[in-house]
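During the reporting period the student researcher (J.K.) took over the structure-prediction task from the postdoctoral fellow and processed the backlog of single-chain submissions. One of the processed entries is reproduced below for the supervisory committee.
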Amino acid sequence: MRIYTDEIINAVCLHMADRRGVSPSDVEVQLSWDEQYGYTAEVWVSGRSQYVVEANILEAIEQYLLKQYQIRKFRSQIKLDADEEFWADIEDD
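J.K. obtained the following structure tokens:
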């Protein structure tokens, strides 16, 4: 299974909204990758910015898969990758 940029952003939005107690529409996400920090996301919640690291993105995807698809996967089964867009490969059982 593979999910792409839009679903990864949705996963992070839903996860951060749940953690902050706000509506998902109050959350904006921009994914990025660089050699020093790896995969990160800049997240704006109600106008305040914060960065989340790859572990947080994987946690968001893990929760998203469970809530949206009723698929239980662990972070170790999710691999992020990117070229012109981002995607996450989810291992099959």
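The committee noted the following: The first helix runs from residue 5 to 20.
J.K. will present the remaining backlog at the next meeting.
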